[in-house]
Amino acid sequence: MEREAVIRVKDLYKVYRMGDTKVYALNGVDFEIYRGEFCAITGPSGSGKSTLLNMLAGLEHPSKGEIVIAKKHIERLNERQLVAFRRERVGFIFQSYNLIATLNALENVALPLSFRGIGRTARNKQARQYLKLVGLERFMKHMPNQMSGGQQQRVGIARALAVSPQIIFADEPTGNLDSKTTMEILRLMKKIVREQNQTLVMVTHDNNLATYADRIFKIIDGKIVHIEEGHQEVDLLEAEQAAETREETAEVPGRETSDQKAAKKETEEQEFAGKKAGAENLTEQQTEDKRQGDQDEKVGED
Ligand SMILES: Nc1ncnc2c1ncn2[C@@H]1O[C@H](COP(=O)(O)OP(=O)(O)O)[C@@H](O)[C@H]1O
Ligand SMILES: [Mg+2]
């Protein structure tokens, strides 16, 4: 049987102008990703990983080229259509978790469901299910600052998965976690995505983590230089020990990177939608459902 390509990228470019100079963050990229696949995008810092992911997720416009996701040309969508695309098709997991500080775990996971016009009872039920799935049944009412990094990222995963997106994008999802928690989170993401036949695209600068993927895309200076099969058979325990001996790495702080920008955009979007009920971005039917849902009070208070 033909494998179904969920993502098709053709001749993709992203050029940033910095004064007189041009930075080719993506310099002609082509690939396909199939349904149910777990792909890792790896490469050194500044190679274009986040730019690529943000473009796939419809967070940034390409300078040139095509991105077809579920038969839709993403590069042809306007801002409003992109918001709808992200809401309907895509889940995002960030390095910095990006939970809303004033909402508890349950409310954070339920929030994207409210954008879909799902009523309070149904969205709380669904949010609870996903928090259980990531092993946080006892932390439903905890605020983000009352949870460890690993727990916060579990909430982030539950939030991304609760809307059952076709595709999940994760940008350095374990970048702020210790190596033991990193392995747990990775295994969890892989397991859930497998069970639900979802597609997972994960950016990492860690070559070892990348070997857990089905395929590894190596990117250098905005070009994919190599695509290889991952080592699915890799012994989990052995890899865990190897991970423990590795040093913790951190991205150099500096000006706002494109992943920080994407994270901020997402939070702003959520907060905006939270405040204004996202009415501008919802269809009429969704708006109607949402209004009804909202009449049943705040998320998570039952
Ligand atoms: N908003 C921006 N303005 C200018 N240059 C940018 C911007 N975002 C990214 N870049 C540049 O594009 C290149 C790729 O960045 P990025 O995709 O963030 O890399 P990675 O995620 O692999 O570390 C880098 O040279 C970076 O400096
Ligand atoms: Mg990055």
Rounded mean pLDDT score: 83
Q: What name is given to the CATH topology?
A: Rossmann fold
Radius of gyration: 19 Å
In CATH, what is the homologous superfamily?
P-loop containing nucleotide triphosphate hydrolases
Q: Strand arrangement, largest sheet?
A: 6-7-8-3-9-10
The number of E-state strands comes to: 10
* Helix vs. strand class: alpha/beta
Please indicate the percent range of residues in DSSP E strands (runs of 2 or more). 15-25%
Number of domains: 1
H/E topology pattern? EEEHEEHEHHHEHEHEEHHH
State the separation between the terminal residues, measured CA to CA: 47 Å
Shape: globular
Helix count, DSSP H or I runs of 4 or more residues: 10
Taking the sheet with the most strands, its summary is:
6 strands, mixed
CATH architecture: 3-Layer(aba) Sandwich
Low-confidence stretches: 247-254, 271-302
Class, according to the CATH hierarchy? Answer: Alpha Beta
Structure, explained:
By secondary structure, the protein is an alpha/beta fold. It contains 10 helices and 10 strands. Strand 1 and strand 2 form a beta hairpin. Helix 3 (105-115) crosses helix 4 (120-133), helix 3 (105-115) runs parallel beside helix 5 and helix 4 (120-133) crosses helix 5. Bound molecules: adenosine-5'-diphosphate and magnesium ion (MG). The site of adenosine-5'-diphosphate has 14 residues, from strand 1, strand 2 and helix 1.
